[in-house]
Amino acid sequence: MADEDPFLWLEDVTGEAALDWVRARNAETLGEMSRSERFRQLRAEIREVLDADDRIPYVFRRGEYLYNFWQDAANPRGLWRRTTLAEYRKDRPDWEVLLDVDALATAEGENWVWQGASVLRPGFRRALVELSRGGADATVVREFDLDRHEFVEDGYQLPEAKSRVGWISEDLIYVGTDFGEGSLTTSGYPRIMKEWRRGTPLSEAVTVYEGKLEDVAAFAFHDPTPGFERDIVGSSPDFYRTEQYLRTDDGLVRIDVPEDARISAHREWLLIRTRSPWQLDDRVYDAGTLLAARFDDYLAGSRDLTVLFEPDASTSLEAYDWTRNHLVLTTLSDVRTELHVLTPTEGWRREPMPAGPPLGVAQILDTDPDESDEYFLSTSGFTEPPTLRYGHLGGETEVLKQSPARFDSEGMTVDQYFATSRDGTRIPYFVVRPRAEGGPTMLTGYGGFEVSRLPDYSGVLGRGWLARGGTYVLANIRGGGEYGPSWHTRAMKENRYLVYEDFAAVAQDLVERGITTREKLGTHGGSNGGLLMGVMLTRYPELFGAIVCQVPLLDMRRYHLLLAGASWMAEYGDPDDPAQWEYISKYSPYQNVHSGRDYPPTLFMTSTRDDRVHPGHARKMVAKLRELGYGVRYHENIEGGHGAAADNEQLAQKWALLFEFLWSQLKY
């Protein structure tokens, strides 16, 4: 079928013919949008939000310092910096700049984008810094001296690849990268993990684990906690299963849990979160249960497990975070956040912890599991700006930082409703309405990979949509994690259609409740949410007045052959298997474009440098729609990676394009 595709040439990411096509489409779209004074205002106001110097500079602790990565108008590519807690308490902390990415990019003539750093613990003197060209997933790795504020000459370095690195000690690291033929999986990630000793060439690194070619990726990490040092290696056969082993002097010891369970270790404890029902002896643990065991006892054969959390029909476990002596659970009850503190004593003592606003979100941002019971907690809501709190469990809590409001929310209302999907399942969604009625409505969702969409604050959304009179709707459809793993697994592979029926049900419910009309209902989504938009366009076009489809998967016949696509077959299925292609083909947007349909106006947006979801998906879809006479718009950012923007200027333009398109098409 691929041979019959007349637009296959658009998959040549940097081919001159393909880029000429991209430039022509960009010129058309920007030429149309930039004529609008509203577009220019949107771009300026969003840039102001993104660059605001009174934003909360979120931090994470490493040793005595709090680290932050900061971007603003003067530093579009960003500053990696640190300060002390005492300084951070001040309105204007004194920051110690470690790395100026803009200066580095200028000096080296590269469009570097910050992708993070792994700091050595204990000691916290060195870091493995990752930088990408234009925001791609593939990075270069360089060792950085935190005391001298410079890269280490003759230190650890890796060329551009989708590498995995991690400290073992100052003179030894784990490395998985492109070692040559056969060293990467079919998904493009490391298949082989090695120990690399300082001062030796990479070719002499010692293999400690090899996964299979068809695995998603291999991994290895070292836990340096004094008295509990451990090395765990393994691989992921697919996106949701892992095989994990403890490295010992006698070889590898398998950590015997279900392959789809998630495990983590903290000091003497092993935590196991189930993803499917697990029968152990005469007990069945439901999907989404969190269990605790003593690590060494479990590996020795004991199955003495304590249930720390058990889901019910409305409540799921969203996250869990260790401090030195406590475990904080973040749960969702009908997508409303609750926090609980568990303390291992003779049993496990459980106490509630204050959370955020009723229809908002509370999130543990960082803890200090090595040394103390310190935590940083962020709370916000659709109309409540973020507040950053600091404290120690069992002690007082202080407000460290509070963001000013980015838009006037006076008179706005936030409500939660439930739509009924085609099979009778109740689908929750949030509605944020402005003071005045009659404006357009923007609906969004994701519905995949067990990702929860929560009701937090967005100054960009507030300025670009809500403050201008738009209504915003967030749908918590199946495929996500809002009700635990089963909310996701119910909508995988052959049941993928449930995701789309859920979203369509929310769209219909909005009209039936009188919240909006079809003509004033727009929708947007990206990545897996871009696939959702493609299905809405081709299967439910009668529900929407306009659609924005970002960094999308669309050609599901070839997705597994493009970039990281093979790693998602556990989510969508294998299109090379005729039985699986049978159900995939029913919704694959690229294969379901037809002439003579009443498709709503649609804007497709992607990035040339997206090396996760191939830009060919969006390019080919637009080319096919154009050939059939549909007036679709297209914009492709040359930089930006999977986020489709490498800096705040590009991000502001991306959002301004989205908002301006919806405002103009929804006739407001």
Automatic annotation (TrEMBL):
One BP term from GO: proteolysis
GO molecular function, one term: serine-type endopeptidase activity
Keyword line: Hydrolase, Protease, Serine protease
Domain (Peptidase S9A N-terminal): residue spans on this chain: 4-219
Cellular component GO terms, alphabetical: cytosol
Gene3D superfamilies: alpha/beta hydrolase, Prolyl oligopeptidase, N-terminal domain
Superkingdom to which the source organism belongs: Bacteria
A Pfam family: Peptidase_S9
Stored InterPro entries: AB_hydrolase_fold, Pept_S9A_N, Peptidase_S9_cat, Peptidase_S9A, Prolyl_oligopep/macrocyclase
Domain named Peptidase S9 prolyl oligopeptidase catalytic: residues: 466-667
Protein's UniProt name: Prolyl oligopeptidase
Organism: Amycolatopsis bartoniae
